[in-house]
Amino acid sequence: EAQVTQNPRYLITVTGKKLTVTCSQNMNHEYMSWYRQDPGLGLRQIYYSMNVEVTDKGDVPEGYKVSRKEKRNFPLILESPSPNQTSLYFCASSLRAGSTDTQYFGPGTRLTVL
Amino acid sequence: KQEVTQIPAALSVPEGENLVLNCSFTDSAIYNLQWFRQDPGKGLTSLLLIQSSQREQTSGRLNASLDKSSGRSTLYIAASQPGDSATYLCAVPRSGGYNKLIFGAGTRLAVHP
Hints:
Oligomer: heterodimer
Number of helices of chain A: 0
Largest sheet of chain A: 7 strands, mixed
Number of helices of chain B: 0
Largest interface: A-B, 25 and 23 residues
Number of strands of chain B: 11
Low-confidence stretches of chain A: none
Helix content of chain A: under 10%
Low-confidence stretches of chain B: none
């Protein structure tokens, strides 16, 4: 089944404890990105990747890192999480970079930073 | 800067009603517009994607229209069912940003039996 998977789905952590949220797609998509969703602010893009080893900042990249060593994986890294990073996170992918192809979203990861 | 607005923010209707969700955008130079459904714990599911050259797209009981010149799209849901209860989001690619989507805040729909 074609899908975008994220792990973990739920995570409660404490300020400053490094964490990684994984994202994987099995559709051989070039483009992958991370969004966060907050009440009243909607979905905002954190980082995106046009292909392997090509990543760039979105609208709200502060406090986050990403890597794209393989085409299928695009992990989101919080080196020192803070309470303002409590949010619902979505990974998304689409077939071609620089296109307007349909985007496919993962199920979301709900993160709480205490 | 592209901004996307959805009205109403929430809607509660009895089963069987036909309903219309609205989406407006400020920059009419869009490549396409996409409607998503968001269910709690299940992420976003793409419902319909309308290319800028199209005026309508249909999928089952859903019909989406696009009027680029007025910066508006509507999602029409026919004969609503309790299973349609979800949040509906519209999104457009950022001008020059292709893959990057700009989302509206969504319309939270509740269909009661």
